[in-house]
Design goal:
Number of domains: 2
Number of strands: 12
Radius of gyration: 27 Å
CATH superfamily of the largest domain: Vaccinia Virus protein VP39
Distance between the termini: 61 Å
Mean pLDDT: 88
Structural class: alpha/beta
CATH class of the largest domain: Alpha Beta
Number of helices: 17
Shape: elongated
CATH architecture of the largest domain: 3-Layer(aba) Sandwich
C-alpha cells in the first residue's frame, strides 16, 4: 500500500475514534451526571471547540513539518491520551458520585467540568489529523479539491462508524472505560504501523506507551464504577447500552435497583415484603377514583418503565395473575432484575422496547396504564405530551386510568403543574398525591368523569381482611391527596420543554441551599 493509501486508512480510523470518544464521553459523564440536554450541550460544544483548535493547529503544524512520521507521532500521543482519559477520570468520577450522593453540588459541578477538560488535549490532537493529512496527500495542486474531498469523506465515514459501533456493539459488550481503550488501541496500532512504514527509528521512543496503558488499566479497572451508598453491599454492576446498572443490598436483605447517577431507587425487593411505603404502592390507587370500584374490576395493567418490576409484583400480590405488560427499554435491567429482584411473575409479559412505541403496538385495552420511566430527575419528554396521553386514552377501558410519577422539590411544583395542565386537556378528572418523605407527586387521570369522594367510598366498602395491603395503600393515598394546580405550560409533541423546567428547578433548589 502506498503512503497516501495508508494515510487514508489513518484518516478513517482517526475519524472513527474521535466520534467514538464523543459518544462514549456521554456515557462516562452520564453515569454520574445524567444525560440531560445540558450535559449533551457541554459535551458537544466543548468537543467542537477542541476540534476547531485542532484543525487550526494541524494546518500550521503540517506546513512547518510536512512529514508522515510527524503525523503518526501526533496520532500516537492523541490515541494514548484518549485511552488514559477514562482511567485518570475514574477517581474523579468516584469522587463526584460521592458528592452527588451527598448533594454537594459544587464538588459535583467541579468534577463535571474537570472531566470535560480532560478531553481537551486528546481531541485537539485528533483534530489535527485531517488538515495534516490533506497537506501530505496533495502532490498535484490540480487535484487539491479531489484529495481534500476524499479525506473529508473518509473522515466522515469513519465518524459514522464511530457513532454506531460503540453504542450498539462495544459498550454493551465491554463497558464504557474499555470502549475508550478499544478505540485507543485500534488507533495506536494504525499509528505505530504508519510510523514503522515511514521512520522506523522513531518508533522506539514510543514503545513505552502500550505497557503503560495496560498497567494503568489493570490498576484502575478493579472495583466498581460507582461506590454503593453507605451501609449497602454491591451485588451487581453492569454498563449496558442505556444505563450503568447497580443492584445493592442492605443488611436486612432489602435490595434496590440504582441507575446511572444513583439518585433515587428505581425498584425495591425483599423476599418477605411487598409494600415499601414509596411511590410504587400509589400505582395501586388509580382505579379507586371510579365509583363502586372493586378489586375484581381490574382486568389488566400496562407499565411503561418496568425497571425491576416492583409495581408489577405488587399488582400480582393484590390481584392475582392478571395480565401485565411491562415495557422496559433496557434488556440488561430485566436480566439483572430476574436474577436479583424477583422479576419472575408468570403473568408478566416483558416487552423490550421504547415505551411510547411499544405501547402503541399493543392491540388491547387496559384497566390501568402506569408510567414510571424516570432517568432521575428527568422524565423523557415524549412521555409527557398531549398526543401521548391521547394515545393512552384510546387504549383505556371506559373506566380505565392512567397514573404517572412526577418529580418536584419542596417548594417548586412547576413540572407537576405543567403535567397537570397537559393531562387535563385529555382526561375529564385528575387527582394528585404527594408521596411522603420524597420529591414525588403521583398524578391519576380517569377516562370517565369521577370525583374524589369515590376513593373514600371504595375504601369503606373494601374487605380489609382480604386486601390488607390494598387497604393500607388506599388510606395512605387518601391522606396525602393535594389540590390539583395547573400552570399555563402545555407539553406537546412540537414543544415540550421538560428538561428546561427540570434544569431550572434543580438550579433553584441548589441555589436555595436545600441540598
Amino acid at each position: 500500500m502506498s503512503k497516501n493509501g495508508y494515510l487514508y486508512v489513518t484518516v478513517f480510523t482517526s475519524g472513527m475514534t474521535t466520534l467514538a470518544i464523543e459518544l462514549t464521553a456521554s456515557r462516562l459523564l452520564g453515569n454520574i451526571f445524567g444525560t440531560s440536554n445540558l450535559v449533551w450541550a457541554n459535551i458537544i460544544g466543548l468537543m467542537l471547540i477542541y476540534l476547531t483548535v485542532g484543525y487550526f493547529i494541524g494546518g500550521r503544524w503540517a506546513d512547518r513539518s510536512p512529514y508522515h512520521h510527524t503525523l503518526y507521532q501526533i496520532i500516537i500521543l492523541g490515541a494514548f491520551l484518549s485511552g488514559v482519559v477514562p482511567l485518570i477520570s475514574r477517581p474523579v468520577l468516584r469522587f463526584a458520585a460521592e458528592a452527588v450522593n451527598n448533594l454537594e453540588a459544587g464538588l459535583a459541578l467541579g468534577s463535571f467540568i474537570g472531566v470535560l477538560v480532560l478531553f481537551s488535549v486528546p481531541v485537539t490532537l485528533l483534530g489535527t489529523v485531517s488538515p495534516f493529512a490533506i497537506r501530505l496527500a496533495i502532490e498535484n495542486k490540480e487535484k487539491a479539491g479531489q484529495v481534500s474531498g476524499s479525506i473529508y469523506a473518509l473522515s466522515t465515514l469513519g465518524s459514522i462508524v464511530g457513532t454506531f459501533l460503540p453504542v450498539l456493539v462495544i459498550t454493551p459488550a465491554v463497558g464504557t472505560t474499555r470502549t475508550f481503550l478499544v478505540f485507543s488501541g485500534i488507533l495506536l496500532l494504525v499509528a505505530f504501523i504508519g510510523l514503522w512504514r515511514t521512520r522506523r527509528a522513531a518508533i522506539f521512543r514510543w514503545l513505552w506507551i502500550p505497557p503503560v496503558l495496560i498497567i494503568l488499566a489493570a490498576l484502575t479497572l478493579s472495583g466498581p464504577v460507582k461506590p454503593p451508598p453507605p451501609g449497602m453491599t454491591l451485588l451487581y454492576e453492569k454498563d449496558s447500552a442505556y444505563n450503568l446498572i447497580q443492584i445493592v443490598e442492605e443488611d436486612d436483605g432489602t435490595r434496590y435497583l440504582l441507575l446511572n447517577e444513583g439518585q433515587g431507587y428505581h425498584s425495591q425487593w425483599h423476599p418477605e415484603q411487598i409494600y415499601y411505603r414509596r411511590t410504587w404502592g400509589y400505582f395501586l390507587v388509580g382505579p379507586y377514583f371510579n365509583p363502586n370500584h372493586t378489586p375484581q374490576d381490574v382486568d389488566n395493567l400496562a407499565i411503561i418503565g418496568l425497571a425491576g418490576g416492583t409495581i408489577a409484583r405488587q399488582y400480582t400480590h393484590v390481584y392475582g395473575d392478571i395480565p401485565i405488560d411491562g415495557i422496559e427499554i433496557d434488556p440488561e435491567i430485566v436480566e439483572a432484575s430476574r436474577q436479583y429482584l424477583g422479576l419472575t411473575m408468570p403473568n408478566l409479559n416483558v416487552i423490550i422496547q421504547d415505551g411510547r412505541y411499544a405501547f402503541n403496538q399493543q392491540d388491547k385495552r387496559y384497566s390501568v396504564v402506569g408510567i414510571d420511566a424516570y432517568r432521575v430527575p428527568y422524565v423523557p419528554w415524549h412521555l409527557t405530551t398531549v398526543e401521548f396521553f391521547e394515545e393512552i386514552r384510546d387504549k383505556l377501558t371506559n373506566d380505565g386510568v392512567v397514573i404517572i410519577n412526577v418529580g418536584r422539590t419542596r417548594d417548586d411544583r412547576r413540572l407537576v403543574e405543567a403535567m397537570a395542565n397537559t393531562m387535563q386537556q385529555v382526561y375529564p378528572s385528575l387527582y394528585a398525591m404527594d408521596v411522603p418523605e420524597s420529591f414525588n407527586t403521583i398524578l391519576v387521570a380517569t377516562n370517565q368523569p369521577t370525583q374524589v369522594e369515590n376513593l373514600t367510598a371504595n375504601i369503606e366498602a373494601l374487605d380489609r381482611d382480604t386486601y390488607p395491603l390494598l387497604y393500607t395503600v388506599l388510606t395512605t393515598a387518601r391522606d396525602t391527596l393535594v389540590p390539583v394546580v395547573t400552570s399555563d405550560v402545555l407539553f406537546t409533541d412540537d414543544h415540550a420543554p421538560v428538561e428546561q423546567i427540570v434544569d431550572d428547578m434543580v438550579i433553584d433548589y441548589l441555589l436555595e441551599g436545600e441540598g
